[in-house]
Amino acid sequence: VYAKRKSESGNYNAVLTYGFNSVATRDPNACFPVVYEQYRERNASLFTPFEGHLEAGKAQSFKIMVPGAETVAILCDGQWTPLKKNGDMFEGDVTIGAAKAEVFAKFTPNKQFIGLLRYEGTH
C-alpha cells in the first residue's frame, strides 16, 4: 500500500505490506506480473493476463488501459508486437517466448518506450 498526504508533492511512499494465501490455485509458483514504477505513475490498469508466469509457445491475450499512451507493445524474444489501440485501451494476442515478455508504452512527444510490466515464460 502506498500513500501520501494531500498536501505533499512527489511520489507515494510505501506504508503497508501484507501477504495472503490464495485458495483459488494449487500452483505454488503462481504470481502476478512484475509491475514497474511507470505502470503506477501512468495510472495503467491491467485487465488480462493477471498470471505472472505465462506458458511459452502459447498465444496469450493482453488487455491493458494506459491513459495517454500513443502505442503499447509487447517485447518477447526480441520481437515487438504492438497492441491494437481503442482510446486508452490496448488489446491483442501475443505468443509468449521461453524467457520473458514485457509490456512497454510510448507517450507523445517521447520517442522511447517505457516499461510497464514483466511476465516470465514457462515451459
Low-confidence stretches: none
Ends: how far apart? Answer: 33 Å
- Count of extended strands: 12
What structural category arises from helix and sheet content?
A: mainly beta
The secondary-structure element order is EEEHEEEEEEEEE
Rg estimate, integer Å: 16 Å
Question: Outline of this structure?
Answer:
With 123 residues, this protein is mainly beta. It has one helix and twelve strands, in the order βββαβββββββββ.
General description of the model:
The protein has one helix spanning 37-41; strands spanning 2-3, 13-14, 34-35, 45-48, 53-55, 59-65, 71-76, 79-82, 84-86, 89-95, 100-106, 114-122. With 123 residues, it is mainly beta. The protein is globular and about 50 Å long.
Give short descriptive properties of this protein:
globular, single chain, 123 residues, 1 helix
